[in-house]
Amino acid sequence: MAISKHWTGGNNNKVEVPESDDYTKWNVDQIRCECSSRKMLVKKGTNKESRIALLRENDTLKELEATSSAMKVPPPRSPTRSRSCIYCLLNILFDDDFCDDFGMLGNSYSRRDLDELKSSEQRFWDRVAEAFKKKGMYDVLLGTDELFGNFDGSKIIPHTSTKLESMWKGVKRKYKMALCKFTKSGTHESDFKMFCDGNGGVLYLHMCLQINNGLINFVQEGFLDKDKFDSLEPDDCDMFSPSSVEGSVAVVSKKNVSASKIQLVGELDGVSKSLAQLAESNKKDEETLKLEKEQLQDNVFMEKLSSLSKITEMINKTEKEHGILKKSSENKRRLEQNLVIYKKRYDKIFNDLH
Predict the structure, then answer these.
(1) Cβ contacts of residue 173 below 8 Å, gap of 6+?
(2) Verdict on whether the full-model pTM lies above 0.85
(3) How many C-beta atoms lie closer than 10 Å to residue 223's C-beta?
């Protein structure tokens, strides 16, 4: 017995299975059973014709869904990055054409960024994605190590700018964790590679920073100042960084941090000497000013002494004239007045000198 292609009610003992594909040839029980099987919301008391119309609408909807599913093309899968991709990415970021803009990421938005749809940060990662497509330009390692043994320039796969940015953030986070363990108090291991957990990308980033140490502060952004030297708290690892990472490309060791500290001490000594020279210069200037002041005082003293000598001479002359003209009462009174004035001036100058 042929079963209708529309029937979904199964073998129901209470309802006879329909054979025709025409709903009008189905009885009421078959129509009701089919509506229930399809879980259609039908009001109680709906007649047969209305139920048949609902079933036909449901059939049309199913056909459209089937057609749409057949025509839909599955989205392309993003390529899975190979282990060599991170080395190529680091070569691009630390390249001379990119490192300056790379170190400016995270700065406040400019007026151009506000006016345009893409920020300078988005444009930078778009440039990196374009450079990533250029075969043979950024697939040469800066050094060799057994952790780089899985590098193969021919297996580098292009990625989107979003994927490349995510790759950078991942290796940066792992580098900070390794750096925290490497510089933690009580650590006696001097080989940074021992703290990379076998991750060649982390070690390669450390190597790139040794060559271009101008990006050290940028890579270590987010670390607190109190965590920039040895910490006894293991939970602070994600925010820890040393003050500097310097040294040769071939040797990645803890001695580089010590060399940086020695260099810092030398720079501080140079600053101290400069301050001492400045203080000495100021001292000489003070001595010069003191001598000039004493010279000025001597000049004033000599001028007053000269005035005093002249007044003394005038007093003597007045007294002499007073003796000659003492017979004349008018001249005598005038000479006495002059004599009083000269003596007052003499006393004033004399007191100033003492």
Answers:
(1) 238
(2) no
(3) 19
